[in-house]
Amino acid sequence: MAAAPNDLQEDGAVKSPAMPARSALLPPLNLPFLSPHFCQPASSHEHKLNFKKSKEVCLSYIQDAVLQKQWERAAEFLISYIESLEKDYSQEYMGPSEMIWRIGTEILCHHSRSSMKELNSFMEQMKILGVKRYLKVCLEHVFQLLCNGFIDEAYQNLSLAESWRFGEQTVIQDKEMKLIQAYRGLLDYYKWSKQKNILLEHGEDGFEDLSVEQEMHSCFRKAAVNLKEIIKAPGVWDQFVKCYVDLLEFYGDCNEARQVLHDYAYDSKFPSNPNAHVYLYQFLKRQGESKKALISALKNLHDTVPSHELMIDFNLMLQKSKKRKKRQLGLEVIFAALDYAGWKENVKAWSCLAKQLKQIVMSEKHLDWLKQEWSPRKDWWPAFHFSRYLGKRNWQENQSLSYEKALVAGILLGKDDKYFKYICHQGCKAQMKRFRILKKFVHKHSPVYMRISGL
Questions:
Q1: Cβ–Cβ under 8 Å, residues 141 and 30
Q2: Engineering a disulfide at 410: which of 32, 402, 442, 448 sits with its beta carbon 3.0 to 4.6 angstroms away?
Q3: What is the structure's pLDDT at 1?
Q4: What is the pLDDT of residue 33?
Q5: Phi, psi of 8, rounded to the nearest 5 degrees
Q6: pLDDT of residue 172
Q7: How far from 201 is each of 205, 213, 217, 250, CA to CA, in Å?
């Protein structure tokens, strides 16, 4: 369907008659009973007055159907909505193309009788219907193709979109074009990765076909150019950064990779992003960097997301340090992680805390660290972690977890704590030696509880 210049509105949409909606959506369906707004004939004057109300009623029906995941019903109402736009004789332009595009895409992605052929047809018509939204529709189309495994078709669509031009390029179109190029770079990386795996599988000596290696290097060059370009702009570019760094590492340009990750994590033009510190830490670890560099990267991650899974690694590194401040930070890190519900049953975390508390109690040094961490938690941790109900559940599900938690509860809440007493009773009844040792240890060091509680 070609649009003549006079048929284009300022927003890039095309005047009615609109696209052939039925062929773009689904095979003809039987429409359900509709409101009189859609069914009764009316004069052009009445039509003009009622059209807006009719449109709103139909949209509310569509919204209701979509929210209830009644995709067949939603499709019928959308067809009716498009037909009502085609029959509108008012001079006022309604500009519905973006709404049709968004709703239609959602319906086609879920409708039981939909297929990629219909989705492709619909997307092509949407590109024509709103030329100033062409690049945005292209991106949506590419995502749908990728989700359904059509990699080559997605790449072809990106290549076509990259060569598209319409009038003077606006700032928005410039940003969308950079996204088009970036996603093409991502697919070039995907092709490069496939070729790399073929080479690695056969080995350089056992694979004589140079075309694979040439194709791989060609994909690298194309991917690197587009990926490098997009990550210069402010934004969250996690996947693009990871792929670009992988390319650089493979070809030995580790200094450039380090700089990219450092800028992504610390340059103020990028929004705060915990993943940036994760990627930097993982890279530094792969490169065998010093503990000081690793701790620095994880410290920034801790400040942003104290519940991140890497906090166990962070705690273990800090506990091995000879510096008191770092060991104190390690205690702070593990306490902070266990403030979150997602860590309540993490055996490793409780083991880290139990080990450090045991060291403090036995040496009777740094009880002030323990008091500092426990004071703001003593009013809510007992119910959060150490109820009798949790004791029963933990014992039934994971005895290793219950052991570590019982040690922590005994030190922090004393030998009369209900969690500690229940677990020790169950352990001693089961004749497990370590629970008898645990009970003796807590009873021996019970004065610590008095000191950190201020009693």
A1: no
A2: 442
A3: 35
A4: 33
A5: -90, 135
A6: 80
A7: 11, 13, 17, 15
**Could you tell me the sign of the dihedral formed by the alpha carbons of 398, 404, 406, 412, in that order?**
negative
Question: What residue ranges of the chain have pLDDT lower than 50?
Answer: 1-43, 89, 91-94, 206
Residue 453 CA to residue 455 CA, distance in Å, equals 6
The tokens of 251 are what? 């070809």
Q: What is the DSSP string of 380-443?
A: THHHHH--HHHHHHHHHH-HHHHHHHHHHHHHHH-TT-HHHHHHHHHHHHTT-HHHHHHHHHHH
- CA distances (Å), origin 294, targets 111, 265, 303, 324, 329: 49, 14, 14, 18, 15
pLDDT value at residue 138: 92
pLDDT of residue 279: 98
CB of 55 within 8 A of CB of 37? no
pLDDT at 145: 93
Lookup: tokens for 333: 């890190």
Tokens coding 326 = 């770092």
d(CA 238, CA 229): 14
Helix (H), strand (E) at residue 249: helix 238-250
Pure H helices in 163-234: 171-202, 210-230
Query: d(Cα 29, Cα 350) in Å, to the nearest integer?
Result: 60
Long-range own/partner contacts, residues 308-316 (CB < 8 A, 24 or more apart): 308/274, 308/278, 310/278, 310/281, 311/336, 311/337, 311/349, 312/337, 312/346, 312/348, 312/349, 312/352, 315/352, 316/352
Q: Which of 22, 18, 10, 3 is nearest to 97 (CA)?
A: 18
Render the burial of 286-308: b for 16+ CB within 10 Å, e for the rest: eeebeeeebbebbbbbbeebbeb
Q: What was the pLDDT predicted at 455?
A: 52
Judge whether 33 and 80 are in contact, CB under 8 Å: no
Lookup: tokens for 403 = 């052991």
Chain centroid to CA 109: 21
Per 3-state DSSP, the chain is made up of helix, strand and coil in percentages (nearest 5) of 70, 0, 25
CB of 423 closer than 8 Å to CB of 412: no
Q: Of 400, 413, 418, give the one whose Cα is nearest residue 442.
A: 413
CA distance 71 to 156: 30
What lies within 8 Å, CB to CB, of 138 at 6+ separation is 127, 157, 158, 160, 161, 164, 180
155-212 per-position pLDDT tens digit: 999 999 888 877 666 778 788 889 999 999 999 999 999 988 888 877 655 455 677 7
| pTM for this prediction | 0.79
Q: Please list the residues that pair with 130 across neighbouring strands.
A: 13
Task: Please return the burial class of 336, using the count of CB atoms within 10 Å of its CB with bins 0-12, 13-18 and 19+.
Answer: middle
The pLDDT value recorded for residue 247 is 96
